[in-house]
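STRUCTURE:
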């Protein structure tokens, strides 16, 4: 089919550029620039030597200081026992955790506790997730999981290295997004006309969303350095990162999932309308599909806002209890950035409905999904 052949060519060209910008980047690992850093180890608490409460200097609060005996579990130092103080996490005997080891030129050593080891619990929960998806989705569920793994691989091993190697974050995010979207739609829903319409329609929406995001970010003069993580990345990165473009790229990647959702749904709904009533005109199908799309958009916009609000809850609580007047706080970049994320994502979401629906009405008439059986009247 000509439409699908053209689509394949567009994707192959995009894929070429994705690999071009990411060449020589797969082996990236940021250098540990901290003086004295040796390695990160996994340890197990075998005993609590002492535990006491201490007052935090300059405050009325207290924290617990432990001196713990730890067995290292990594292969290169497996079985080695070390003792050090811990005022970060309250441990019990048997707890496993990760820590950094520093050895300075004067012979002094330092152990920095990072976080608990949660891998077994995480793997167990991943197993439940995989089981539920496959049990409900069957073979399509398997394809969706393959698509998810592929998307994560592209983001971690193509997008991240390309950003750290100095490529424009906005351009890299757009190219990677096209690949992730292609995999998410076609690997999950099959390589067919319906998927093609959803893919092309979503890419058009993404381009418009990028344009609006550029306008919003530059109008509000956001720097992209609103979080502590961004500041640390700026200090530790060996390349000069454009944090405004990085912010724009993060907005686009963040909205990609819901755009994929609504575009596939709209294309499928148009197909079902055509097949349910052959007498419907294109105009009638468009009106009916758009009405359903409005309902879907209403739910997803609310979902987006709640998702961002949930992730942002500690900062919102700070906003709530702060004695400072609310107007200056709303002007803080950390608040303005999240507001812009919600606005840009919602606009992109709303625009996807008419774009994908219009394309679906044009290209999906007389399209019969694979596996559908014709109903014969007797």
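SEQUENCE:
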């Amino acid at each position: 089919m000509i439409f699908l052949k053209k689509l394949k060519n567009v994707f192959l060209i995009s894929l070429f550029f994705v690999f071009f910008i990411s060449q020589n980047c797969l082996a990236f690992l940021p250098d540990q620039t901290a003086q004295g850093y040796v390695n990160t180890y996994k340890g197990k608490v075998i005993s609590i030597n002492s535990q006491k409460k201490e007052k935090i200097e300059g405050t009325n609060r207290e924290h617990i200081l432990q001196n713990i005996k730890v067995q290292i579990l990594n292969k290169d130092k497996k079985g080695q026992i070390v003792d050090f103080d811990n005022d970060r996490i309250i441990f019990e005997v048997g707890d496993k955790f990760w820590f950094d080891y520093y050895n300075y030129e004067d012979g002094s050593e330092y152990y920095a506790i990072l976080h608990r080891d949660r891998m077994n619990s995480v793997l167990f929960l991943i197993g439940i997730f995989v089981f539920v998806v496959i049990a409900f989705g069957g073979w399509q569920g398997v394809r969706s999981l393959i698509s998810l793994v592929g998307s994560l691989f592209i983001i971690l091993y193509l997008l991240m290295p390309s950003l750290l190697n100095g490529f424009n974050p906005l351009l890299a995010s757009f190219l990677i997004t096209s690949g992730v979207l292609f995999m998410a739609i076609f690997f999950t829903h099959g390589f067919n006309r319906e998927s093609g319409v959803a893919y092309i329609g979503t890419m058009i929406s993404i381009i418009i969303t990028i344009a609006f995001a550029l306008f919003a970010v530059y109008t509000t003069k956001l720097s992209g350095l609103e979080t502590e993580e961004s500041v640390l990345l700026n200090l530790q990165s060996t390349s000069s990162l454009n944090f405004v473009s990085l912010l724009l790229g993060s907005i686009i990647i963040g909205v990609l999932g819901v755009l994929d959702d609504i575009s596939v749904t709209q294309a499928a709904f148009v197909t079902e309308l055509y097949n349910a009533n052959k007498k419907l005109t294109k105009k009638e199908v468009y009106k009916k599909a758009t009405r359903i799309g409005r309902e879907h958009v209403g739910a997803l916009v609310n979902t987006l806002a709640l998702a961002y609000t949930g992730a942002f809850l500690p900062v919102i609580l700070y906003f709530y209890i702060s004695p400072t007047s609310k107007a200056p706080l709303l002007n803080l970049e950390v608040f303005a950035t999240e507001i812009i994320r919600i606005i840009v994502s919602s606009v992109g979401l709303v625009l996807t409905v008419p774009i994908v629906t219009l394309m679906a009405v044009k290209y999906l008439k007389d399209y019969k999904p694979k596996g559908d059986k014709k109903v014969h009247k007797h």
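REMARK: The radius of gyration is 26 Å.
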